[in-house]
From TrEMBL:
<dbReference type="GO" id="GO:0004615">
    <property type="term" value="F:phosphomannomutase activity"/>
</dbReference>
<dbReference type="GO" id="GO:0005975">
    <property type="term" value="P:carbohydrate metabolic process"/>
</dbReference>
<dbReference type="InterPro" id="IPR050060">
    <property type="entry name" value="Phosphoglucosamine_mutase"/>
</dbReference>
<keyword id="KW-0413">Isomerase</keyword>
<dbReference type="GO" id="GO:0009252">
    <property type="term" value="P:peptidoglycan biosynthetic process"/>
</dbReference>
<feature type="domain" description="Alpha-D-phosphohexomutase alpha/beta/alpha">
    <location>
        <begin position="244"/>
        <end position="344"/>
    </location>
</feature>
<feature type="domain" description="Alpha-D-phosphohexomutase alpha/beta/alpha">
    <location>
        <begin position="3"/>
        <end position="127"/>
    </location>
</feature>
<keyword id="KW-0460">Magnesium</keyword>
<dbReference type="GO" id="GO:0008966">
    <property type="term" value="F:phosphoglucosamine mutase activity"/>
</dbReference>
<dbReference type="InterPro" id="IPR016055">
    <property type="entry name" value="A-D-PHexomutase_a/b/a-I/II/III"/>
</dbReference>
<protein>
    <submittedName>
        <fullName>Phosphoglucosamine mutase</fullName>
        <ecNumber>5.4.2.10</ecNumber>
    </submittedName>
</protein>
<dbReference type="InterPro" id="IPR005846">
    <property type="entry name" value="A-D-PHexomutase_a/b/a-III"/>
</dbReference>
<dbReference type="InterPro" id="IPR036900">
    <property type="entry name" value="A-D-PHexomutase_C_sf"/>
</dbReference>
<dbReference type="GO" id="GO:0005829">
    <property type="term" value="C:cytosol"/>
</dbReference>
<dbReference type="GO" id="GO:0006048">
    <property type="term" value="P:UDP-N-acetylglucosamine biosynthetic process"/>
</dbReference>
<dbReference type="Pfam" id="PF02878">
    <property type="entry name" value="PGM_PMM_I"/>
</dbReference>
<dbReference type="InterPro" id="IPR016066">
    <property type="entry name" value="A-D-PHexomutase_CS"/>
</dbReference>
């Protein structure tokens, strides 16, 4: 039985398994039947395939006895909040930071949180046993709209959580030609704030294309950036240094005087050191914002996130919310009279490299000849002030190897050995 769920929902090339009209229908149908949810919020990003996926999903939900409500082209965290506020469950159509040729599905429970492993496993089991008739229909003909009345409940919530009057100086934000593109115009108008967004002209194919948080090399200097579905945030200072999720976590934990912080196995060791100095309890989880949120629930932590820019601040939302975190960052920068360029100076990271190695199959590491000795050799080079961590991507056929150390020359040496090994 082929696995269909990855670390963040279901994702793949649009038109190929599992992202086909019939399969999307099944998933919508089974989501209703297995969870018992009736009123389902649906949102999507700007990919051209989102149209037929939405129609297939709606068909499946309706034929299972559910009532789909289309919120339109909105960010994932907005869908999450609206689900927790007004619906039994939610479904977001997106492949997040992937190119437009991919698409996917993220399922949410009534709390606006990603569904559990147990529900995913039940959906997978029934997916392969599905014998029902597939009745596809076309309910929507355009994806570039927003159901403003419902979405404004999210904006009212943000207005109550962030002191917008303190935001005098702002920094531009890259919307990645994605799900925040239409939304940010509504947000500026509703919140009466000027944010200078750019890359807000989606054409169905330009989402994440040389733009957005997933392509940090293309972020403009002294600005921030969202990814395609608006659940990640990154930034860049005047010198071109990237302000990643780890820097944002340290900044927020510092200025909000928090006593707990959740990261992942990929979180920079500098964050751990930062927490130790400030007597902040620090926890690591598997990669995936769902696992971060689970650990936050377990430890009662208010802040958690990933290096990639998923930042969960529970006072704002129950999931990674780039727009809300962006406004919170602006509020704090203005309150403490800090410049965006101060972030990379004050919150310094250990030198770190992540090597992405394409693989045809995800073999257990012990089956890769010479891999154990390679890791041991690198561990000796990095010493006790560094570490090496290999893992397979949950969404792509990639082996990711993280190397970090206080001494940059040791990182470079280990990187060279690894690249030679995989030549």
């Amino acid at each position: 039985m082929k696995k269909i769920f990855g670390t963040d929902g279901i994702r793949g090339k649009a038109g190929e398994f599992p992202i086909t009209p019939e399969n999307i229908y099944k998933l919508g149908y089974l989501f209703v039947k297995i969870t018992g949810y009736k009123n389902i919020a649906i949102g999507w990003d700007t990919r051209e395939s989102s149209l037929w996926i939405a129609n297939s999903l709606i068909s499946g939900i309706e034929n299972a006895g559910g009532k789909p409500v289309n919120l339109g082209c909105i960010p994932t965290p907005v869908l999450s909040f609206c689900t927790s506020d007004s619906f039994d469950g939610g479904v977001m159509i997106t492949a997040s930071h992937n190119p437009y040729t991919d698409n996917g599905i993220k399922f949410f429970n009534y709390k606006g949180e990603k569904i559990s492993d147990e529900v995913e496993n039940e959906i997978t089991k029934e997916f392969y046993n599905f014998l029902g008739e597939i009745k596809l229909s076309e309910k929507i003909k355009n994806i570039l709209f927003i159901e403003e009345k419902i979405v404004k409940t999210y904006l009212s919530h943000i207005k109550n959580k962030i002191d917008l009057s303190k935001i005098i100086k702002t920094y531009p934000v890259d919307c990645a030609n994605g799900a925040t593109s239409l939304f940010i115009e509504l947000a500026q108008k509703t919140l009466n704030i000027k944010l200078n967004p750019y890359n807000t002209n989606p054409d169905g194919k330009n989402i994440n294309l040389k733009c957005g948080a997933a392509q940090p090399d293309f972020i403009k200097k002294e600005s921030f950036a969202f990814d395609g579905d608006g659940d990640r945030i990154m930034g860049k200072d005047l010198n071109g240094n990237i302000i990643n999720g780890d820097i944002i976590l340290m900044f927020l934990a510092d200025k909000l005087n928090l006593d707990k912080l959740v990261g992942t196995v990929m979180t920079n060791m500098a964050v751990e050191s930062f927490c130790k100095e400030r007597k902040i309890e620090f926890y690591r989880t598997k990669v995936g914002d769902r696992f971060v949120k689970e650990k936050m629930n377990e430890t009662n932590a208010k802040l958690g996130g990933e290096t990639s820019g998923h930042i969960i601040l529970t006072d704002l939302n129950s999931t990674g919310d780039s727009f809300a975190v962006y406004l919170k960052i602006l509020e704090l920068l203005n309150t403490f009279k800090i410049d965006i360029n101060d972030l990379t100076k004050k919150y310094r990271l250990f030198p770190q490299k992540v090597i992405n190695i394409p693989v045809k199959e995800k073999k257990p590491f012990e089956q890769i000849k010479g891999f154990k000795k390679l890791m041991e050799k690198c561990e000796i080079i990095l010493g006790d002030k560094g570490r090496i961590f290999p893992r397979y991507s949950g969404t792509e056929n990639l082996l990711r190897i993280l190397i970090e150390c206080q001494a940059e020359d040791r990182v470079n040496e280990a990187q060279k050995i690894i690249k030679n090994f995989f030549k």
